[in-house]
Amino acid sequence: MSRQSNRTTDSKKMNSELFTLTYGALVTQLCKDYENDEEVNKQLDKMGYNIGVRLIEDFLARSSIGRCQDFRETADVIAKVAFKMYLGITPSVTNWSPAGDEFSLILESNPLVDFVELPDNHSTLIYSNLLCGVLRGALEMVQMAVDVKFVQDTLRGDNVTEIRMKFIKRIEENLPAGDE
Amino acid sequence: MTVHNLYIFDRNGNCLYYNEWNRKKQAGISKDEEYKLMYGMLFSIRSFVSKMSPLDMKEGFLSFQTSRYRLHYYETPSGLKFVMNTDLSVSNARETLQHIYSNLYVELIVKNPVCSSTPSLDSELFSSRLDAFIRALPYYSPRAA
């Protein structure tokens, strides 16, 4: 697929600091607009979800990756292809649950938090919660319902940033009602 | 050599887009009826071929042909379905359908914040670009039809 590889290489370079600062401005504004951190977390997740449901199409078109055979393959694609493509980092996939339906993405560095320090009065703010929404939205569009949440965050004093993903179910495709 | 028509369905079976180029005979039913029949048939073929497949298959159903036309099918993992009918001289339109998805649909519909993709695409830019793309295909040639 020469055409697709051309497209990937000529994709525009974007200044990562500008991106980081823009995201910071967004979160700051949300903190002003909403009363408490829980509400901000919820809004970030919602915004991420809306990004995810569209971003998946861009991802599929650019990566020309087919359907994954199992959740392990999905985890690999998310870490090695998706995070690489959109954030320039490759998180490691670890801590599989025995049933193989739950894993952690460990982010050694998180470009979203490059210049960030959480003030004391925002101790429950999940600053990068947008990422959870993006993952949830994108996977929902490929028939996978997942639960995504931050369990560790360097912003809150942990050593690494850890996103926990749990597979809930496959969303089955059904014939639209009334069609025989 | 020619292209007859093109359907784009979303994952729920709504027809997002339809256009026809060299279609000389109509089905004699309403367009809505036709979309439903088309989607229903694709849905059944798809589930049938996957049940009949001796091995797990990745791509699944790609195309079928009759004595008069060939139907080319491309489905994205997100459930969008691109269906193009051509005459028999077009042996493989997979690249064409992939191009429509990644260079037209994603660029002009998905990345357009004011363009929501339900229930039908309402983008003149998309329609005109797609029309131009189809007309520029090497196998698009109405006179030879």
Describe the structure.
The complex is a heterodimer of chains A (180) and B (145). Chain A is of the alpha+beta class and 180 residues long. Chain A has a 4-stranded antiparallel β-sheet, covered by helices on one side. The longest helix of chain A has 27 residues. Chain A is globular. Chain A starts with a helix and ends in a 10-residue tail after the last strand. Chain B has one domain: Beta-Lactamase (2-Layer Sandwich), CATH 3.30.450.70. Chain B is built from 3 helices and 5 strands, in the order E-E-H-E-E-E-H-H. Chain B has a 5-stranded antiparallel β-sheet with strand order 2-1-5-4-3. In chain B, helix 2 runs antiparallel to helix 3. The longest helix of chain B has 22 residues. Chains A and B meet through helix 1 and helix 3 of A and helix 1 and helix 2 of B.
At the fold tier of CATH, the topology name of chain B is Beta-Lactamase
Spatial sequence of strands, sheet with the most strands of chain B: 2-1-5-4-3
How many DSSP-defined strands of chain A?
A: 4
Q: On the 0-100 scale, what is the average pLDDT of chain A?
A: 86
Kindly report the spatial arrangement of strands forming the biggest sheet of chain A: 1-2-4-3
What about the largest sheet of chain B? 5 strands, antiparallel
Number of helices of chain B: 3
Give the averaged pLDDT of chain B, no decimals: 86
Written as H for each helix and E for each strand, in order along the chain, the element string of chain A is HHHHEEHEE
Q: Please tell me the total number of domains of chain A.
A: 1
